Amino acid sequence: QVQLVESGGGLVQAGRSLRLSCAASGSISSINVMGWYRDRPGRPRELVAEITRGGSTNYADSVKGRFAISRDNAKGTVYLQMNSLKPEDTAVYYCNADLPQGGGWIGYWGQGTQVTVSS
To answer: Residues 12, 119: contact at Cβ < 8 Å?
Structure first.
């Protein structure tokens, strides 16, 4: 099992940057994919970006070229650098970590951090 704690959210003007951090504790050596998801009002939770243990990344089309995900496997941390923020990026951002369990995978979630982008 792992526990995830996000930090770095806040209120920012459009065009500015924020960096989100997520610190995992517990079985961090077992973590495979780590990612960031977000809940925007009236929409289902969506993947923002994810990164494998080997460093391969995947981004939502809406954030490509503006956001960058990175991780430190030894520390069990994952980061999301968000640049050129837009009001539509306003959401609660959640950290996710996938671990193997019972022949499959189980996902763990942080508590979420609010990001508000003003126009």
So the answer is: no
